[in-house]
Every structure is written in structure tokens, then in C-alpha cells.
Description:
single chain, alpha+beta, two-stranded antiparallel sheet, 7 helices
Amino acid sequence: MFSNDEVAAFIHRNFEAVWESVRPVPLVQIDFGGGTKIIRTLHGNIATYLCNADGHVLDVLPGIYTPNQYLQSLSQFQMLAGYVAQRSLLTPETRLQNYHRAQADALKNRQAQPQLVRSPYISKLAIENPIKLVLASAAGNPFINDATAWSAPAKLKLDTEDLANWKLLAEDTKINESQRRRQIHERLAGKANVRPTDLTKWLYREVLHADLDDPYLGLGSVLFANYPFKDKVR
């Protein structure tokens, strides 16, 4: 995702990017005997936080995305920061909570989600209120109509294995944008001035199902199902 040139360029132009590892990278070692060993890392998971200058979370993208949908979401993130910060009768905290409540309600009811768009009118109002929240049509919502958001770019030539992996990525993106995002919107609609440290353990445990406090990352039942000394494993 981050190796995509277009994604990397968009992040570089519009955000102050920071990478943080939330736990040591787990390693798996298989000893075949005779000095032959394989040591590999386990696949983890990621989350993309949008924070304001005070370090408060505005929104979160859970997991891995297709480049197309990730760019669409990052574009909304860019406008969300301006939408929350602009002058209004509402406080930034109330404006942000209303935004998340509207998103959560739309996902719950399988409706087109509200989209942030820049006002096309050049006027005093547009200068003072350059971004407004409007309800996108169903045809323009990737959750309703996924013809482009989930598909592989036409310029890519994918072999059978790559195509299978892309389909898995597309399916995961759909889950991210529907089920997981709804959980995040509901959480942020009920709390103001949340910092990443307030969310991270909950996010990985309840949304991404990768409990950071579990040394086996949820794989214990698989690793020790037929192990005769599993009750003695620490």
C-alpha cells in the first residue's frame, strides 16, 4: 500500500507522516534438524490515524486497503481536518462527533455515507466555510457501488497468484470500510479529544482482532491445539 508511488506522493504532499510500531515484530522459527532452520516474521496489521496539531484523533483507517480506496479515504481525511478546524457556531469537538455519528448511522442503515466536498461557490461564505458536509449519491459511494474502488488498476498485469491476493485485499478493504469503520465511527462519536494511546489497544483487540496483550496474537488455539503440553505453555 505504502509502496504505491501515487499513495506515497499524496501522503508526502498533504500530511506529516509518522510511523509507530505498537509491539515487537513476532518471529516464528522452525528447526528441521541438522542445522536447517527457517526464521520468518508473522504478518501483522496496521491502522492509519488522522490527528490534529494537538495530537487528538480525528479518524482512523483500520487495516490494509487497495490503493484506490486508500487514496479516496486519505482525500476525505485531508478535508476532515479543515472541516473540523474551520470557524463555526459548533465547537470542533461537537462538529467531529456529529461527523462520526452521521457516518456510523449511514453504515448501520446501509445508506450512502456523507462525503466532505469543497464548496464550488467563490463568495464570502465559501471563504469562511470552504468545506461542507453533503450526502453523496449511492452511485458515488464505494460501499454501495464498488466497481472501481475495489478493482485492480488496469495497468497492472496480475498472474493467478497475484489476482487471488488482490481479491483478498479487495475483500478486506470492503470489511474495513463497512464493519470496522462503523465500529470506529461509533467509538469516536461518543468521545471527544481522544489520543492514539486511548484507542490503540481497543482498536487492535476489538476491531482488528489482534490483541496486543496476547503473546500469540490470537493464534494460540491453532499453535497448541494438538500439543500435549499446551497447558504448560506460558
